[in-house]
Amino acid sequence: MENIHLVPEEEEDDLYTGYNEYNPTFDSEDLQNDMGFQQAVRTSHGRRPPSRAAVGTAMGRPSTGAVQDGASRPMTAVRAAGYTSSISRGTAFDPLGQSKGPAPPLETKNEDTPEEKIKILEKKVNDLIEESCLAHARGDLQLSLEKAKEAGRKERALVRQREQTGTADHINLDLTYSVRRLKVNMANIYFKQKNYTKAVKFYRMALDQISNAHNGMRIKIMQNIGVVFIHMGQYSDAITSFEYIMSESPSIKTGFNLILCYYAIGDRERMKKAFQKLISVPLGIDDDDKYIPPNVIITLTWFMSLTLRKALAEKYIMTSAKLVAPAIESSFAEGFDWCVEMVKGSQYVELANDLEINKAITYLRQKDFKQAVETLKMFEKKDSRVKSAAATNLSFLYFLEKDYEQADRYSELAMSADRYNPAALINKGNTVFVKEDYEKAAEFYKEALRNDSSCTEALYNLGLSYKRMGRLEEALDCFLKLHAILRNSAQVMYQLASLSISYEMLEDPHQAIEWLMQLTSVTPADARVLAKLGDLYDNEGDKTQAFQYYYESYRYFPSNISVIEWLGAYYIDTQFCEKAIQYFERATLIQPTQVKWQLMVASCYRRSGNYQKALETYKEIHRKFPENVECLRFLVRLSTDMGLKEVQDYATKLKKVEKMKEIREQRVRSGRDSSARGRREWSAGSGSSSSPIDTPPLRASVSRSEMKYSPVLEQGSDSGQSSHGTSAKGERLSIKLKTLPGSSEPYEASTQQEIDASYVDPLGPQLQRPKTAARKRAEDDEFADEELGDDLLPE
After folding, report:
1. Does the residue 439 lie in any domain?
2. 420 belongs to a structural domain
3. Burial letters for 658-678: b for 16+ Cβ neighbours within 10 Å, e otherwise?
4. Which residues of 740-761 are buried (b: 16+ CB within 10 A; e: fewer)?
5. How many CA atoms lie within 13 A of 5 on its CB side?
6. Can you count the helices (H) and strands (E) in the chain?
7. Domain boundary among 193, 227, 249
8. Which of 124, 127, 737, 787 has the lowest tally of Cβ within 10 angstroms?
9. Which pLDDT does position 243 carry in this prediction?
10. Buried b / exposed e across 111-124, counting CB within 10 Å, b at 16+?
11. Residue 504: CB atoms within 10 Å
12. Residue 223: its pLDDT value, please?
């Protein structure tokens, strides 16, 4: 009755009476004020299952979990798996249904069905592709090739099987594409094996199987085909491939290869057209990329990619211009001019000046220094970068011509145009270096290093400057840094070895041997380095190692007199005189005007017991040098021992020669005495005391008859001044040949007048082992031009 609404009699009938009346249970506007509902939302109170005798709420909600007639009904329309709203009597709690027993076994696959066979075959193909790739990564090309071939065969079988079963529409396109890519890999392997015919075959097979939808892949395969044809010498076929690529998708590398092919067949006109196509190839940079908005940060990867693409394009264009310039016109100068004009009208206009500089360098390589200088002087009024590069090259040219004044002038001009040009600073330092102002030269080299820390020429010359100034530790530090950068530089290793053995402050022969051993690994045929190693081992008393390196040095350069002399003395010292003969005969061929080598040949014959051959050799020496006393003495002795009739003639000649020598020596002594007497009389007559300048220097007066022949190994030895030849390190092998005839067999060497003054040692400066800094500095003076000349090339 409380829900019945009685309308008063005085009110009129309302047509919409009762439409706004509803059960308060569904009143959602009062839910915020319903404490029970709010508590259920905030906690798990609302998720608790109600009791069986649940009653309605105070607001009149009907009961949803009441038990009627002993039967329970679900609380909601959706029933949870394994659970009920009430627990039935006599049943255990088993939400997972384990009481029902184990699940029935899975149905076994029938591998005999066509679909299963296809899936198994696809898996095998994928496995073979993976194995082929792994084998190629390990470097096992043969295994990779075999796996790739097997994958190709199985893939073809797979396609046929699908066609037979009528499932051709379900072909695995990814798998097919992978197998086709595998053919490209197979072609690459054949290319590495230099089996070019099969490489072309597999490239073409891959090309036929790849559709036009993959145009990028087709272009790459065509590029590879053209490269293979170049290796095969089939330039016409290569041109066909490259021309197709340039018409479809032009690239810098393809254009360069096309120019190479035209150059190989000597087609001038097509070379010009190909060069024009090359400089018109776009770099692949969109216009939007050139003008990046200010609020956009350019990533380092994009910038590096852009820089590398541009540098690569400029490299190919410069190389192509240098290649075709001498071939497209009657002279290379006209060819360079044509290339410069073409480049000026292209997107690579900044390369025109570089081509002009390369034109000057080409003149330089042709030893046309005048044209090179004139070409470079044209840049004196250009912009600073080009002017600096041209002035740097001019400075270098004048330095090579030893015109140090002009070299200094142009180095100053290069520095004024670009103070941060390391090559200009190096050239300036070199001009100061030759004036022996090493401190100032070192400052220029340091400045070059501050501008470019990777400038190896500046670091090398800085080390030389420190070496000349005697700052050995700093020089050693420079060359060690340089060795860390240039691991295989022979010059750096030589300097390190030189610093280890040349100065008393850093003298370390073992370290020198180690550096020279590293040097021989880089230049194994350097006879001077091998001879120096032999000298170091000889100083240490290791004759076996010394002989090995001296012999190797002789094998590479059999004209080194010092090496020949050491080897001959070594065989005499080891009582193998007959083996020493070949070395002294070699020395006779090199220095035919010096009688000492012929005397040593005769002495070796005599010591080995071949007296007849020794007599013939002495006679031949007497015929060439009739006034040689040693030869006549041995002729007299051998003729006497052998009972020859010529003994009296030789004895008469010997007395005559000795008498002439005594007369000559008396004249020399009398001339010296009269000269000294005249100076003393002049000094006494002048009434002044003699000064040290007026007094002649004291010299040991040794008569020629008392002089014994004692040739010393000048190059690489210390002439007995160092203690390395004696003491605990072992006695050095004596190279002084005066001990060879014995004390009872005196003979003299030929005088200096008998030596041909016009003879020049073919070796030139040798690698020496001086014991003082002054002597080493003198050695460096000999090598100064060579050491600097290799390092002054402009960058």
Report:
1. yes
2. yes
3. eeebeeeeeeeeeeeeeeeee
4. bbeeeeebbbbeeeeeeeeeee
5. 10
6. 31, 0
7. 249
8. 127
9. 93
10. eeeeeeebeebbeb
11. 10
12. 93
Q: What is the pLDDT of residue 10?
A: 47
CB 657 within 8 A of CB 629: yes
The domain of 455 spans 402-486
Q: Report the pLDDT value the prediction gives residue 285, as an integer from 0 to 100.
A: 57
Host H or E run for residue 717: none
Q: In 3D, which of 352, 347, 374 has the Cα closest to residue 363?
A: 374
Both structure tokens of 164: 């037979």
pTM: 0.52
CA 628 – CA 639 distance, rounded (Å)? 17
Please give the single-letter amino acid code of residue 723.
S
Contact yes or no for 129/151 (Cβ under 8 A): yes
pLDDT for the residue numbered 195: 92
In the prediction, which pLDDT does 316 show?
Answer: 92
DSSP-derived secondary structure letter, 113:
S
From 249, 280, 298, the end of a domain falls on: 249
CB 200 within 8 A of CB 237: no
Cβ burial 545-561 (10 Å sphere, 16+ → b, else e): bbbebbebbbebbeebb
Q: Assess if residue 198 is contained within a domain.
A: yes
List Cβ neighbours of 733 (8 Å cut-off, separation of 6 or more). Answer: 538, 543, 546, 566, 569, 570, 573
Asked if residues 527 and 553 have their Cβ atoms less than 8 Å apart, the reply is: yes
Rounded to whole angstroms, the Cα distance separating 419 from 448 reads 9
pLDDT along the chain (795 residues), means of 10: 47 52 61 71 57 45 48 53 54 65 64 76 83 86 84 80 73 71 86 91 87 86 94 93 92 93 92 92 62 50 75 89 88 86 86 82 79 78 74 86 89 87 92 93 94 92 93 91 90 88 67 88 90 91 92 92 93 90 92 91 90 90 89 89 86 89 84 69 48 31 29 32 36 37 34 30 30 36 35 36
Which residues touch 56 (CB under 8 Å, ≥6 apart)? 62, 63
Instruction: Supply the CATH number for residue 444's domain.
Output: 1.25.40.10
CB atoms within 10 A of CB 327: 14
The amino acid at 221: I
Asked whether the beta carbons of 601 and 617 are under 8 A apart, the reply is yes
CB-based contact 336:358 (threshold 8 Å): yes
User: Six-digit token pair at 716?
Assistant: 């690489």
Please report the pLDDT score of residue 765 as a whole number. Answer: 30
List all residues 6 or more positions away from 279 whose beta carbon is below 8 Å from its beta carbon: 317, 342, 343, 346, 347, 348
Look up tokens 């016409």; give the residue: 236
pLDDT for 307 equals: 78
- Structural element, H or E, at residue 400: helix 384-400
Overall domain count for the chain: 2
| C-alpha atoms less than 13 angstroms from C-alpha of 616 in its C-beta half-sphere | 4
In a domain, residue 438? The reply is yes
Chain centre to alpha carbon of residue 486: 8
Cβ within 8 Å of residue 707, ≥6 positions away: 748, 749
Identity of residue 426: I
